[in-house]
Amino acid sequence: MVEERGTPGESEPGAPLTYAESGVDITAGELAVERIKAHVRATFRPEVIGDLGGFGGLFAFDPTKYREPVLASSTDGVGTKSRIAQLAGRYDTIGLDLVAMSVDDIAVQGAEPLFFLDYISVGRLDPDMIDDIVSGVARGCRQAGCALIGGEMSEHPGIMAPGEFDLVGFVVGVVERSKTLPSGIAAGDRVIGLHSPGLRSNGYSLARSALLERSNRSLDAPAWPGARHSLADELLRPSVIYAPSMAALREAVDVHGFAHVTGGGIGANLERVLPKHCDAAIRRGTWDEPRIFAEIQSAGSVTGDEMERVFNLGLGMLVVVPDTDVLHALDVARASGHDAWIVGDIVAGKGRARVIAP
């Protein structure tokens, strides 16, 4: 936790008031910008024009690579995972989580992420914390193959306490119109699940209530009895960025659809891509569920239905492919570094997804 320097506005009556006395430190902001420059430049693609310091980012998009390019965009945050980072005093991975949440949303539509922007609001600007956060954003952008071309840091004294922060990310990508997804999902297709080793960035309010408040566990304690890593290590496990592997799958097989498993769980997110004439049946027990989910359920006496509505349960991305491509798709996903399983089927129906108990 960052200690407060003093109460904004405590100057002698009649003395000239400064911005710093009001709680905003311009000098700290300038130092933070200087420290993040190397992180940002490390993400640049050849299409990036200019450098940091402009009023906006410039990106020389090449439309000749496409017959009918369609721009895709998304914005997202990291939810209350930021509170865990604050409590643990660890900020070097939360920026990567931010990138994952946004870029994978447009990769679901078949888009290649092109460039990214971030917004960081803080109670008091700490250059060290900003450096850690942006280093994570930059690492995520490099993994996703997109450029970090702009952003904003905003100090909010009196609204946010010192040490508090929030993150928002914005991504723009491109897809050939004829290749936008979902497309062609039909009865007989199979559903592949790509492994998520942890919570990614969803369900943290419930996880925090169950583990830290109801069970009074310490972030410094083992994640569970016998674990060799701490609860903080587990809850701050970086989100997997699936976008590059999704691109590899699109090149190798006839992908009919992707579903990014975020808030709402497996069923609700899969329903977002199903046509009205199809249902999906997902069978629990066909993939490895990380231990952390059982810990949350036990600590908070959470029902099974609630767990399925809130958490990814170990599947961060779902891939819908024809039955004839399913084995090749598994090989491609595994070659890209993911554990992957056949977890369900597409059947005739009314656009609903069911998670079936083992």
What do you see in this structure?
The protein has 358 residues and is α+β, with helices and mostly antiparallel strands. It folds into 2 domains: 26-179, 60s Ribosomal Protein L30, Chain: A; 190-356, Alpha-Beta Complex (Phosphoribosyl-aminoimidazole Synthetase, Chain A, domain 2). Helices cover 32% and strands 23% of the residues. It has helices at 26-41, 81-88, 94-107, 127-144, 204-214, 231-235, 243-252, 265-271, 291-300, 304-310, 326-335; strands at 48-49, 58-59, 69-77, 112-122, 147-155, 165-176, 190-195, 257-260, 278-283, 315-321, 340-348, 353-356. The protein has a 6-stranded mixed β-sheet with strand order 8-10-7-11-9-12, with helices on both faces. A 4-stranded mixed β-sheet has the order 3-6-4-5, with helices on one face. Strand 1 and strand 2 (58-59) form a beta hairpin. Helix 7 (243-252) runs antiparallel to helix 11. The longest helix has 18 residues, at 127-144. It is globular and about 75 Å long. It starts with 25 loop residues before the first helix and ends with a strand.
How much strand content do the residues show?
A: 15-25%
- Uncertain stretches of 5 or more adjacent residues: 1-9
CATH hierarchy, class of the largest domain = Alpha Beta
Could you say which structural class the secondary elements and strand pairing correspond to? alpha+beta
Radius of gyration: 22 Å
